[in-house]
Amino acid sequence: MSDDIRLVVVDDHPVVLDGVRLLLRDDPAIRVVGGAPDAASAVRLVARARPHVVLLDLRLPDAVASELVAPLRQAAPDARIVVFTAYRDHAALQATLDAGVDGCLLKDAGATDLVAAVRQAVSGVAIFDPRVDARAAPRMRARLHDTGLTQREYDVVRHAAAGRTNPEIAEQLGLTRHTVTGYLRNAMRKLNARNRIELITKAAQSGLL
Questions:
Q1: Topology (CATH level 3) of domain 5-133
Q2: What is the residue extent of each domain of the chain?
Q3: Could you tell me which residue ranges the HTH luxR-type domain spans (predicted)?
Q4: Taking the mean position of all CA atoms in its chain, how far away is CA 4?
Q5: Angle 177-190/196-205 helices, nearest 10 degrees?
């Protein structure tokens, strides 16, 4: 990846896109390549722009964020999806976290926090504002840290635990089958599991499932 970080903002309020551009203006390495006001246009934009990071509003006119995660993954499998919301305890937030986003950031974040979040997301770090859902996000972040699993590896393990096959996981997360196999292999190594069943068992014992 080049030093240029491409960012897409999915939000139905133009002021949010303008605000993000303003906050990021002093970091020339992060470039806002577009904004989308609804789910349908977001998928088209992400497929065309291939951003490194997507800032996704929790609620859009035609979808909630949890419904949009899978289509965005299919449109740009390598993009990191970070929920960008004003509501730290909205009912839809937990479903979005469960859908496997790469983080959650509150909209009152300052320029320093936003830049750091974008850069950390690109590097593969799961980003969660410490004020967001104190019951779920920090706890899961700590568990992932303890096991060494990345957010993407965790996503694949979670789908495997639900009984999905590798092709089904690949379709759900917008990945190739080869990539899914690689994530499972990495997860097995990190959890010291010899096979899929043992992986799921150890993930459950670690509090990940």
A1: Rossmann fold (3.40.50)
A2: 5-133, 148-205
A3: 142-207
A4: 20
A5: 60
